[in-house]
Amino acid sequence: MMSQEYDVFICHRGPETKRNVVSVLSGMLRSSGATCFVDYRMDMGRHVESEIDATIQSSRVFIVVLSPDFATSKWFLDEIVKIMSIQDTQRSAVSVLRGILLSKGITPFVVDYGKTDGAESELNSDIVKAIENCRVHVIFLSENFVRSKWCLEEVAYIMNIQGSPGTFDASRKPTVLPIFYDVEPSTVRFQKANYDLNEVPGSSEEERSGWATALCELSKLRGLEYKTASTVDEDKFRSMVHTVVRMLNERHEEIIKSAVDFPVGLAQRSKEIERSILDCASKSEESLQCFGLLGMGGVGKTTLALSIYNKLHSEFEGSFLSLNTRSEVSEGKGVVAVQKKILANLLKWREDVWIKDELHGRDVLSKTLRNTKALVVLDDVDDRGHLDALYRPLRSSLNPRSVVIITTRERKILEWAKSTETFVLERLSKDMSKSLFYWHAFMRPKPPVDLEEVSESVIEACDGLPLALKVVGSHFYNKNDKSYWKESFMYLQKNRKDVFDVLRISFDGLQQNEQEVFLDICCFLIDEGEDLACAVLEACYETGRPYLDELENKCLITRYVDKDDGVRRIRVQDQLRDMGREIVRQERRDRVWDEQTASDILRVELCVRNMQTITLMERCERMGGDVRHCGHFRRLPQLRILVVNGSWCSERSFMYRWLRWERAPFQELPHGLCSPNIGVMELHLSDIRILRMASFPKLQHLDLRACRDLRRLDSSNGGPADLKYLNLGWCQIIDWLPEDIRSK
């Protein structure tokens, strides 16, 4: 295990140094989530072995503890020589730029960060996905850049996106910033000196031609020049960061424009509110400024708050966006979880900071956030208790130039918050309603002549609500049969009691499996990673991503990149989420996601027998006793998704597809949970010691983070053939991995 990658390499000599300094330092680093290598073989007195050399090459940060007798050992002098000889771009300019961007709240993806380059030339799917998801690409063109076919392929792919306007929509087309690192732009443009592509081993004429075109186009872009011998690092890095931030802000402008040109005039409304917010905040000297966005569900409050947040957050020291606060607080996570997120985002703390309860959380927020200049968005607040727990501590502690934006359907919430200004969002005008609907239904500003009359009737039924116009319009896309339009309009007329009934037409138009996928997302997969969601859906329905694509095309879900971790996640607008859950409560009654639905649904025997998906928290005690008791699981023959926090069962079900069990108490997975159909298993922070992989031939996603007692993954009798994701972070004593996993 010596040659694995580490965050920190600690070089030291002598047992006293190890006891008094190194053990304490390495312990503190590990508690912060960093992996550390400490050279415990220092007393062997041999030259640096190949595995030590490999560890040095793959480590990111080096700490050398210079004790009085350090220089008397050739072993440690050799280590220092190895460490000081590492002068590649990643460990110098790139690592510094990465750290500064992270401190600014910008999430960078550094290709192959902390690893040696190797000879691999083909871009894997993770790299391609990262390239496509990033809004700004910073390319360091160093002297040795063209020695890597991988780097050349990355440049070709990035520049191909730039040159293919039909490949991506305008809002996702990235911006490219070349940094000429000890090379001249002309050297890159004409492939001279070190950039002679004929010297690239194993390359074809076709490959060299493509790389030459990409490098030529890249060198013409406005970039930055960096000379390691003469440039003052601090000034140049400040210039790099400023350029990246400016590019991101320009991209935010384009994203907002692309989202609202056709529809709603959101850009103009956003600019008005943004101008008002900045004007008020700049003049504030006594307390933070609170702004309210007030309006009925589906009118665009969340969309507007999100666009303003994206535009303004870089103006503040810290920022936090809480989407769907009402839902997040009420569904088992609680106010304390949101309080932890506020601290994590504004102070860059870990989210597992200890907070005893809501009152303690208020006190921690008040004391630790004093004079922090921050932007905070609390979306969908409808409870004064939530306001007191989350907003009051901010008001009493944040810097007077801070801004809090609250979106709500209740005017009283903003009165209690004493908002500086309230912006009321009304329904759309008739003309704007037509523009939005026609864009989603026909992808053009006017409908076909034969559908003009019926489409106006449908627009009227949507009552000026942007969400309804968008979803219903997408439902009619590519539907040219006039009779279909008339039947759908009759349905809307007959059932139009509230926005749910208007949105329901889009749900009813889905295929059966699409309906099931949508309900699974509404109940369990909101804000989950796209890759995890795909693995769950593939386990349940044999395919995943095509369903997500179809639901996104119909405007029933969206996908976004989480700025905190760079993960692409699933989002559902709260009105659509509530509609989906209401369908489950009133009709399907086959999913349980919180204590209230457990109380309403699990007491009915027929519902129990048909139950497909269930989330169990510590307080869920239904079904005539504790629902987590093993005997009750015989009554759940259709159960395929199980999310648990508590004790365990032993009754076996072959239907399980997704098992999430945080802090599971067992040392080996109980027989009752060993379903051969499981595709996703998450057991982080659990007591498990051994996992027998032969029980899970269809497993694709395995998360065992922080299972500190885990010793081995056993595949002696077989294992999954298509494991795509494995997370063993902070599994510190694991001593055996199957060969097929180690080779991946």
From TrEMBL:
Record keywords: Chloroplast, Leucine-rich repeat, Plant defense, Plastid
Superkingdom of the source species: Eukaryota
GO BP annotations listed: defense response; signal transduction
UniProt keyword annotation of Plastid present: yes
Domain TIR: 4-135
Plastid recorded as keyword: yes
Single GO MF annotation: ADP binding
Residue ranges crossing the lipid bilayer per the database entry: none
Protein name listed in UniProt: TIR domain-containing protein
Source organism of this protein record: Ceratopteris richardii
